[in-house]
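Let's inspect one such protein example.
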Amino acid sequence: MATPVAAEAPGAPAPPRSRKSVTGTRRTVAALFLLPALVLLGALVVYPIGYSVVRSFYDQSGDGFARVDNYKALFTDDGIRTALKNNVIWVVFAPTVATALGLIFAVLTERVRWGTAFKLVVFMPMAISMLAAGIIFRLVYDQDPDKGVANAVWVGVHDTFAQASAFPKAHPGRDSPLRADQGGFITQTPVHAGTPVALPLVGVAPDQMPDDAKKAVKASTEQGKVTGTTWQDFTRGKGVGTLGAPDPSELGYPGMKIEAVKDGKVVASAKAAADGTFTLPAQADGARLRLPASNFKEAYNGLDWLGPSLVTPSIIGSYIWMWAGFAMVLIAAGLAGVPRELLEAARVDGASEWQVFRRVTVPLLAPVLAVVTVTLMINVLKVFDLVFIIAPGSSQDDANVLALELYRKGFSEDQPGIASAIAVFLLLLVIPVMWFNVRRLRREVRR
């Protein structure tokens, strides 16, 4: 007869079981598999962080304990303070603008046939390294409009509304009847009707003369009027030409403005024809002729994009060019998961497209927008390549950021203690942003 098995008493503890991971693998085995990764993580991440923290409390030589002097330098050193200010500008504007552009691109390209092609073009800069992008934008922002695309466009727009002078280098030669006056030139003696006036100038290269310039001719005499010629008088005697008189090989100054001045007031004015001749009314009799400064205004050369005042916004622009595509792709992925019924319901209720976008689309995309913004914030705190490559040496101090200052302190100025302090400070700046991101992700998982 079988022995009856004793029933377990109610509430008795269950027998101990071997503890396994969620995948069914023993934890010891899992730890052995993870050990190589943990060793690499400790060697490449934990140890450098720990060493940087320790090194930040030592002096330049590494032998003397500097206490918190290196951290005090973060707020007293002019270069670090400039870098900190620029990092604030980067964190505020770069992620915001890149995310906003990504949102606009993602929403607008949903409604067009060629949206995929547009997304491909916008995302393409992500395939370019920071080094290559820096070299590209160093050329884009070149001061010379013949080289820099930005200034070529800017100068083209400017010259459409304010045409530059064709004679910025023109000036009187030897024995000229003209003398300097308020940025322009004026005749030394009054002129009179019936006597043609010669206003010779030099200094304009032949290839810089206007296309409509014609051969200069001596002005004819007109009764009761002041006539004259203004031209490029480059010929010099010795049987080749006559100084102070138009020669067949010389060109007139078309469009040159001439003013008749009496007692400091302009009584008449005229513009020279293609051959340099001009005619003034009778009021100009007894006046002195002035070529005003507007004739010699230097050609507009665009903006100094890489100068002290614009270098940081210019580099931020290049960063946005690279990362707006990244933001667009992530937001477009989130937009694909937005329930279309909600959008259609809002339209049926009479909401305009702007109201649908502002009150429905954006709130539903808030988690995605937060991910993109936080990711870009972490990224811009570490920006180094673009600033180092795009900013020229003359304005690199004005474009300085913490990552670049870390490099300069550690290698150029041989101050490893301060460089370590900057590295620790950057880590402290990144930790709150990462903590916010992790907390938000956990909240999303719970939902």
About this structure: Residues 176 and 200 are 7 Å apart (CA to CA). The domain at 69-152+305-446 is CATH 1.10.3720.10 (MetI-like fold).
